[in-house]
Design brief:
Layout lengths: L1 H26 L3 H4 L5 E4 L7 H13 L4 E6 L8 H17 L2 E5 L20 E19 L6 E8 L12 E2 L4 E2 L2 E20 L18 H19 L9 E5 L11 H7 L4 H9 L6 H30 L4 E7 L8 H4 L3 H5 L7 E2 L6
Parallel strand pairs: 1-2, 2-3, 3-9, 9-10, 10-11
Antiparallel strand pairs: 4-8, 5-6, 5-8, 7-8
Helix pairs in contact: 3-4, 5-8, 7-8
Length: 364
């Protein structure tokens, strides 16, 4: 029995030493580990937030074992104005003294990409609109209203005996439109003539529908967003990018639009018949074409949001030696709802430097 006990003690000694080492490392974390944790540091720009008070609070961040923090407007009364950059400068100077890194939140409040409720309609998310009329051929069909800046396409498809549109019969009507007027000779049979356009997407759910969000599926809109929000930060703190500033953080964005100018680019790249995709998404197709084409449309719009908005943010950041990180909402299964995930959360998140889901307390 004595020999067994001694053997047990000898075998336990390495484990105890490893446990002591683990406890020491936990109590005195190396800085590369501390960089992985940090609080959301709210800034309001009011009289209470003096440079001294901000510095004192950042000292507490460092004392707590953190290696970084995220400077957030929650909300700052002068976001993107001189007061905002003044307070960021105060925080940045203190961060350098404490060897902390400062991530920058990209919104006045939340959700990200709403620009504090100041997104112009020109750059706002877009929703696909479809209208149709049934005709009996052969017939020469004429109609006005097939044009304008919101017009996208016009398609005709023959209806089968069940009233379903046959995918193999779809016709692009663009060659038959002149001066906004369609003039097309429909062949024999029953046909559905469909017109596609876009309108402003609904307002953000987190603002009660009052605010618009940037169109993440259109390249000009995403570029406007970067020039409006990201570029001014770089202009103020360029020398600290990639050093005391590791990058930008986005928070709980919404993806309200289901159409963007990049959609046709992606569909063409994937070898998808855009006519089938559009018609299946809004009207439905006969047979097996329906589910496949609708799926292709939804995957393509998610790819647009990921590639254009979040990929665009990441590329912009990487060109300046920083990263783009953030998280989407988890509660109420919003990660499965197109207006909060563009239809495929993984297609969005793969384009960020690091993806994330906002999983809070009892939501687990």
């Amino acid at each position: 029995m004595k020999c067994l006990f001694l053997s047990f003690c000898v075998g336990l000694t390495p484990l105890l030493a490893a446990a002591d080492e683990l406890e020491t490392r936990f109590r005195d974390l190396p800085m590369d580990a501390r960089r992985l944790t940090g609080p959301l540091f709210w800034l309001h720009g009011d009289d209470n937030e003096t440079p001294e008070r901000l510095g004192h609070m950042l000292e507490k961040v460092a004392e707590g074992g953190n290696g970084c923090f995220t400077a957030e407007s929650r909300p700052h009364k002068d976001w993107l104005g001189p007061g905002w950059y003044r307070d960021l400068g105060v925080c940045l100077d203190k961060a350098k003294k404490l060897d902390l890194q400062m991530w920058i939140f990209d919104e006045r409040w939340w959700p990200s990409q709403s620009i504090g409720g100041k997104v112009p309609p020109r750059y706002a998310a877009k929703t696909l609109v479809a209208e149709s009329v049934d005709i009996e051929g052969p017939k020469h069909f004429e109609a006005a209203g097939y044009g304008g800046e919101r017009s996208i396409a016009a398609v005709a498809g023959r209806l089968n005996d069940s009233g379903k549109i046959e995918g193999a019969t779809l016709v692009d009507l663009a060659p038959f439109i002149k001066g906004g007027k369609l003039a097309w000779k429909a062949p024999e049979g029953r046909w559905k003539v469909m017109r596609f356009s876009h309108k402003l997407a609904s307002g953000l759910g987190q603002s009660g529908g009052k605010e618009l969000s940037v169109d993440g599926a259109s390249r000009d809109c995403a570029e406007w967003f970067l020039k409006t929000v990201y570029q001014p930060h770089y202009d103020h703190f360029a020398k600290d990018f990639g050093k005391s500033i590791p990058g930008f953080f986005y928070d709980e964005p919404e993806t309200r639009g289901d159409w963007g100018t990049e959609l046709d680019v992606v569909l063409k790249e994937w070898g998808v018949d855009w006519k089938k995709a559009y018609v299946a998404y809004k009207f439905g197709l006969a047979g097996d074409d329906d589910v496949a084409a609708r799926y292709q449309y939804m995957e393509a719009i998610a790819e647009c949001w990921g590639r254009v908005m979040y990929g665009g943010m990441t590329r912009w950041c990487e060109q300046r030696e920083v990263k783009s990180i953030g998280h989407f909402m988890e509660h109420s299964m919003l990660y499965l709802k197109p207006k909060y995930c563009a239809g495929d959360m993984m297609r969005l998140q793969k384009y960020s430097s690091m993806g994330g889901i906002d999983l809070v307390v009892r939501q687990l």
